[in-house]
């Protein structure tokens, strides 16, 4: 097995790399800087991999990226991810509609539930989301999931009966969180 020593082509002095290593807050970038420092000292990618407990291929990739892009090449690049099914305007409109009661849209329920929001999105935006994703959207819009509790210490019995009747048909509903509301 031949030992291939990777050459650092960037003209950054070792003491400057050590200074960057000491100041770096991001642990992944710090680890990659350590790889560069070991390579600058003349170690092979296999030796560096054994020291840092990474594969020699990983070490080779980061050293090559450092040679091409410099210090910025050691940082993680942003990933685009899957594009949303609805555009920003549709999300804004949905948020406005959720401020209103579902009864205004012809539904029988007084509160928005995950399933009801899913149905609304399907009918009005002709796209579907999972229950979990609808929950994420609701949290993003500032809503919190509430459930009727069997008993509360500070309960008002007259309001309790009204609340129980309203939520009898649903187990969960969404409620807008305000700054004065703690839960």
Describe the structure in your own words.
- Helices cover 49% and strands 4% of the residues.
- By secondary structure, the protein is mainly α.
- It has 2 domains: 61 residues; 89 residues.
- Strands 1-2 form a two-stranded antiparallel ribbon.
- Helix 2 runs antiparallel to helix 3, helix 3 packs across helix 4 and helix 6 crosses helix 7.
- The model has no long low-confidence stretch (mean pLDDT 84).
Summary of the model, kept short:
This protein is mainly alpha-helical.
In terms of DSSP E residues, the strand content is: under 5%
Note the run of SSEs as H and E: HHHHHHHEHE
Give the CA-CA distance, first to last residue: 64 Å
Q: How confident overall, as mean pLDDT?
A: 84
List the helices and strands and how they pair.
Layout: H1 14-23, H2 27-40, H3 45-52, H4 56-69, H5 88-98, H6 114-125, H7 131-140, E1 143-146, H8 157-166, E2 173-176
Antiparallel strand pairs: 1-2
Helix pairs in contact: 1-2, 2-3, 2-4, 3-4, 6-7
